[in-house]
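Section 5.1 Outputs to date
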Amino acid sequence: MSIGRWKINTRKTCLLLAAACGLASLAVGTGAQDSQVGATPRGHLSLYTEAVAPRRFIAVHGRRALVSGYASEGLEVWAYPFQILSEYQVSFRTAGATAATNGTDILARVVYQPNSVTRIYLGSDYVIREKLFVPLNEPAAIITYSIQSARPVEIEVHATPVLNLMWPAAVGGQDIAWSSSLSAYVLSEPTHGFTAVVGSPDILTHDSPDNRTSHGVAETGFGFTLRPGASGVASVFLALNPPHAADPGLLLCKLIDTQDSLQAEATAHYQDVEDSLLRVETPDENLNQAIAWAGIALDQAWVCNPDLGCGYVAGYGPSRGARRPQYNWFFAGDGLLAADAAIAAGDRAHARAELKFILRYQDSKTGMIWHELSQSAAFIDWEHKYPYMFAHVDITLQFLGTVARYVTATGDVAFARENWPAFEAAYRYCISLLDPETGLPRIPPGKEGGNEQDRMSDDLGLSSGWVEAASAFAQLAGLAGHPQMAEEALHAAQRARESIPARYWNSSAQFWISGHTEAAAPMTERRSGPSDALTQQLFSAQQNEHLLDQLATSDFQTDWGARGMGAGSEAFDPESYAKGSVWPAHTAALSEAFWLNHRPATALALWRTLPPLARLDSLGHMPEVLAGNLYRPQAESVPEQTWSSAGFLQATIHGLLGLSIDSVAKRLLFAPRLPAEWSGVTISHIQLSATSVSLVLGRVGDNITLKIFNPGEQFEFEFSPDLPLGAKLRGAVFNHHLVAVSIEDYLQQTNARVALTVPHGDSELQLDLRGGVSVIPDAPDPRLGDPSIGVRIIDVRLEASTLTIAADVPTDRTSRVRVKSASQVAGVKGATVRSITSGLVELTFAADHNASGSYRRANAIIEYKP
């Protein structure tokens, strides 16, 4: 690769660089830093894996920069909106060796922390720790190498310089030159005067671009060799300068001088994120980590572009052909999903800022909300020459719903009033989409709904979105002082509700129609979305039951989530991006729908497929989409998808915990649907109005105790816990006084309901229960390449002393379900039973090799002694 190599007096270069940067000391690695670099972190959020090759994605995030990639392909370094370099790879040469060892060959472990990623390389007689770090608020990156070896080890770095804008913008004429005073390469481009630097005071030798016949950025890249000093530490610094910077080394020098404080700032930031967001502590520590990391992933999706502003990006992955690290630009729809999760988790500041960011680019003529915005949009005529910005009509409907949820949860009524003209314009745009005959939205020619793969004239998701949007606008109008518009919007929502069953029900299949083609033909493939139609109960009770029964089967459910299309549909393709794959975001939403429709066993089993996904590829983060037949990422999947982590966070908070916050009315709903084997849960940092409330729920025997810590003013509280099916209530005591409580029985769920006024200070509620039955499906634990083998719970009913369980079970193996009850089993049909402990039995469904297909329907009936 090298055309020429220069040898440098490293000590002299370091002195020159120190002088150039105005540094008083050369101590790049101080004693304090050396004690941190290379040490294996053991904090609550530290994750590590030894499954590192060949495809283990890593990403280190800042507000203004990113380091990411796979070891097999090398790393990309971005400082928005520019890519500085690609294919960053390392090799190591020990003293006396004739050849260097490729880093990918000896990569042994990767340690993930919120503020950094450390890759550990194990050589024959040395260990090298490579710490990848991106400052929180600088367009820069620092890569530090810590070496443990009895003999000297040199680090050879190879990379391809880029210094070009994120796709689809581009600049030309890039140049690369070596600066001996900075001990760094200086990349430059003439169009806008940007420069970037890549260098280190620890560089021993480097490729000489001056010896090339062309001085442009060469396809063969560049390389340099690092030799650590006495500390055993060497660092590489990368930085993007503002246009026409007089001193290209200014930021480089700042990085060298302040790297310890920059790392301390990032560490403190992520500690603050963990301390300020809603915190959930369960008996399962792996789950606690997954929940906490979902909040971290949400924070890491917050990006600040110097020209466009700050907002949520949709995700991170390797660039594929074009210069774009996958979804690392702004999508309003994805941003709204992230904002909803931020609202649920108590991050009001980012939720508000995201809504303001979206409003900044609203179409001033039509009121339409935009779809996507490239990070390089400021350098091109993005709105008029590219067809991406105002492509999706569904985003405007989605926007109104998120705004209403933000105002309700935070009590920020001023936001509704201050931005009323923009909200009214968005609502008027939605009205312009309506078919006067049905009151349902249509997709105008040249536009799209939520389905990008099929050209449609209307779709159920758009119509259910309109019901939500109109209801949300009515709420906003009431708060902003426009009662007539609120009444108009409620009427529109009701009319849409009445029209939906007639237009979107397939009576022959007893299933919904997902939409209509441009030629008005109904699309009857059995798709599992939109779940909003279930949560809003837009169909009759009987139709809803038919839908839920089918969506709970093995046709849709897998051990890693819910398929977007049923396996029995003609168009089903398990490798398709949209017709048979499994989306974590959709799985999360569907689990909420099952909970809200009183099917807790199915909901819990579905939700439990999500936490393991945080360890599938990029640790702590969730992928975009998985295959529909085997446990593996789908071919087009992005390893870090913001809406996947956001969906999991929402399903946990709204679904599993059943938390709903209304700061306008100062009301809190807590409706937990916890696994029967849990002893309790602790939830802190619940932001209600100006108060931070904490809840501690404990279960011992037949008793539930709820402790409420309220440091603020009194508020209205509703507690509605999921109970064992068929449980009875003996009594309820709140702060030593009897209180009224009711039992609500549904076909597959029993829950209590008590309404209270919680005073300032500490309070305690006790529920005394007896009886009831809990069905406990095993949590899935698939391995890469595995097919789905879990039990799919479809129906659970208790009539008198008879429990009936309907489930889809695999045909090629035995399956098991646990059942917990204080009553004794008198007999079982359809399965065998064995006692595990007092009150806990295990049902076993036998394999049936004569059955067709991979699953069969099984029915178990348990008779209990009175």
